[in-house]
């Protein structure tokens, strides 16, 4: 039991880690760090919807904060369309645009 194993000690070392194992460990840690989406109260939802409607009507720039499992993302632009039936907005900046689900927005404010 007390004998050391002979052979290639590099592969037998407990400190040696294959790249595949390292990436798997990193992915497992990221999975454990996932955040839960905050539950917004009615007042906060109304504020977000009001801000989005104001951007559409007055053509003012708005910043929306989108929930992501690892970190929130910010987008800045003009609301050019609102689909109430699918709860989506079209946010446009420069020559680009993106459809965003209103339920993914955790905060919106006028720039």
UniProtKB/TrEMBL annotation:
InterPro entries: YolD. It comes from the Bacteria. It holds the Pfam family YolD. This is YolD-like family protein.
């Amino acid at each position: 039991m007390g004998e050391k194993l002979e052979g290639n000690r590099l592969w037998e070392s407990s400190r040696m880690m294959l790249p595949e194992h390292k990436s798997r460990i990193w992915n497992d840690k990221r999975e454990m760090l996932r955040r839960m989406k905050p539950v917004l109260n009615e007042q906060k939802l109304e504020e977000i919807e009001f801000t989005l409607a104001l951007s559409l009507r007055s053509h003012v720039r708005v910043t929306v904060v989108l929930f992501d499992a690892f970190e929130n993302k910010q987008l800045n632009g003009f609301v050019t369309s609102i689909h109430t039936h699918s709860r989506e907005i079209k946010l446009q900046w420069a020559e680009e645009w993106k459809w965003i689900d209103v339920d993914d927005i955790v905060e919106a404010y006028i720039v």
